[in-house]
Design goal:
eight-stranded parallel sheet; two-stranded antiparallel sheet; 9 helices; globular
Length: 273
């Protein structure tokens, strides 16, 4: 898959999408990088540590409470950051949004990928925006309730609906990545079950991304605050490697990359690919 100017070779390595929240209220790093200088400095640090894609978010989407922004306000947050990232660094840029108008302006600014937490089910125009601009997209599992009949089967069905929306809008197959949606529309126990059964999504035949960094399932399991969840997050990244996931989306680049390299060395020892 080509994302921006970079080719990603799936199947033998788990790449890192680094989180760059330019928001005042994100659950783990709200306010830390919501000025242009701070955002660019943090991006530079992530690149030094080995990030493969930088995911820019202008609106917190933490479950349980966040401020819904107008399109204009979200655009005003993300466009200067994306434009300057593209000027300063040679790294693919993802935009974390579920809104079509925001995506349109983000792509104009240089975004190479749209990361949609609603799997194209929130804004009817988003799929068309992605298709018309021929950019990559990461489509996450989400829904408005946790009333599953058969949890894992229903997650697959929900994601198949997302795939159908994408393909009907003209999004190319080689532009689609799927995300199981840890922390969204799932109870604590369901999040653990999803993490235990990451491989169940391979039947959909698309590249996969795991986004579990510092999330509540880690905090509840270990009884730790958001800034103390590095080891728990690393564990989920190793699970992603073992489940043949193509990306992890994380806050802590260096630590997760080291863990991924070690897990891959063990996994592929003896030439077993």
């Amino acid at each position: 898959m080509k994302i921006g100017s970079r080719e990603f070779d799936f199947g033998r390595h788990t790449y890192i999408m680094g989180i760059l929240n330019v928001t005042p209220d994100s659950f783990s790093d709200g306010g830390r990088f919501n000025s242009l200088d701070k955002a660019l400095f943090h991006a530079q640090e992530m690149i030094k540590e080995g990030v493969d894609i930088i995911d820019v978010g202008g609106e917190s989407t933490r479950p349980g409470g966040y401020t819904l922004l107008s399109d204009d306000e979200e655009i005003s947050r993300i466009v200067p950051v994306i434009e300057n990232l593209k000027k300063e660094f040679d790294v693919p840029i993802s935009l974390d949004t579920y809104k079509g108008n925001v995506a349109k302006e983000g792509i104009k600014a240089g975004a190479d990928l749209i990361n949609d937490i609603w799997g194209l089910k929130y804004d009817d125009i988003l799929a068309t925006v992605i298709a018309e601009n021929d950019v990559a997209c990461c489509l996450m599992h989400n829904r408005k309730d946790t009333n599953y009949k058969d949890f894992l089967t229903d997650v697959v069905k929900d994601l198949q609906e997302t795939i159908d929306i994408a393909q009907n809008a003209g999004i190319k197959e080689d532009k689609i990545i799927l995300d199981p949606g840890i922390g969204f529309a799932k109870t604590y126990e369901q999040n653990l079950i999803m993490l235990k059964n990451l491989s169940s999504l391979h039947k959909l035949n698309f590249p996969l991304l795991l986004g579990a960094s510092r999330k509540s399932v880690v905090g509840l399991t270990l009884d730790l605050s958001a800034d103390e969840r590095v080891e728990g997050t690393i564990t989920t990244s190793i699970m992603a490697v073992l489940a043949d996931y193509d990306f992890v989306r994380v806050h802590d680049i260096k630590e997760n990359l080291r863990a991924i390299k070690m897990a891959e060395a063990i996994k592929y020892a003896g030439g077993n690919f």
